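Re: the pair you flagged

First of the two:
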Amino acid sequence: EEQAIDIANASLYGLQAYVFSRQADRAQSLAARLQAGSVLINRITPELLAPFGGVKQSGVGREFGVFGLEGFLEAKSIVLG
């Protein structure tokens, strides 16, 4: 497992990764250690409503969901005295 994580994280890209396991806890632990914008566990089709985007040279930011909208928003503070 350590070698697989090291090989995967050594990539210049990090759009999407996959983990297949019969042990849910183990799969989630591995997924958390992968440097990817999304990690699919025991499936090959993405969740279309989940935020999508990469890390490293696979891009910056997210599309879809609340995270996708945040790129178009600008925070503003209004303070009453």
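Second of the two:
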Amino acid sequence: MADRPLPRAAFITKALVQSAAITLLAALPNSTTSHARTAADATFTNPLLTSGPDPWVFQYRGVYYYTHTMRDRITLWRTRDITDLAHAERKVVWTPPEVGKNAHLIWAPELHRLNGKWYIYYSATESGFKDDAHRGVFVLENASKDPLAGEWIDRGRVNTKRAGIDGTVFKHRGGLYFAYSPYVGAVSGLALAKLANPWTIKGEETLIAEPDKEWENQGGRRILEGPEFLAGPKGQIFLTYSAGACWSDNYSLGLLSASAGADLLAKGSWTKRPQPVLSSANGIFATGHNGFFRSPDGREQWIVYHANPAANMGCTLKRSPFLSRVNWTANGDPDIARPTAPSVRQPKPSGTHGIR
């Protein structure tokens, strides 16, 4: 049977259907492009920023708060994707007074949530001085629900036994513990104490570690600094620290551990790992000063630390924040992945993909 010409109405209908189909196909993403975009969204590269010494991440109700040393102010970043700090919301939340005990060299800020309030611990130097004897750890308090809002109240210097830097806190078995790096003669060690409130030590502080390993003597200084707590899967308590001088390419992370149920204020409770747990690798140097956080879904343990993407870069604001995955050994010890070069893409923390 010969084909008959379509009626005019049918011809118009067919044309409209074909046009709609072409429009729909054009709107669909190219499969190759879509796949590449998905892969990029699910991965990241180090470093996260071009500058970020002494990085810190605090995780609260699905949100990550980030900060690092800026020397003359404290800034907070806020994001749901910790690997995308370059596009995160940020705000300067505090600037130091022009003169006073906490006026200069604002280092290593850390944000914590304690007893329903926000606290920032930071190191500072007294105006008119540049020596270690005039450094201390200070505390800011904010009662607002939002740490990027409200008023930050200066609670002053933590009443440590010695001058020092790099204060941090950790809740353990109903108590609040404070660790910092005191100056002990010509060296820097690690000290621990319990707190009566977020800015006041109660009782004695214990010097739990001093630099006694060759790899803790780098750049001409025997230094342990930047202590950070990590709870182990079997009840252990770990304390990472930065070893050597920050201007050395061999600046690295060491590890102390205490068994479950141990008295944390007893020096004998702590065992030092004989070798660094994170050091230079893959063209990345001076790995140090870290913090810990979990992936958005809570399944993975991660570490943030600073490093230099080339040798001989020293101890400057060019140090950048890096991320590495932390796995656990059969004994329940942390196993930190080596730093990755900027060209290497790695999976984002689990649960991050798709979050905006």
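The two ends are 60 Å apart (CA to CA).

-B.
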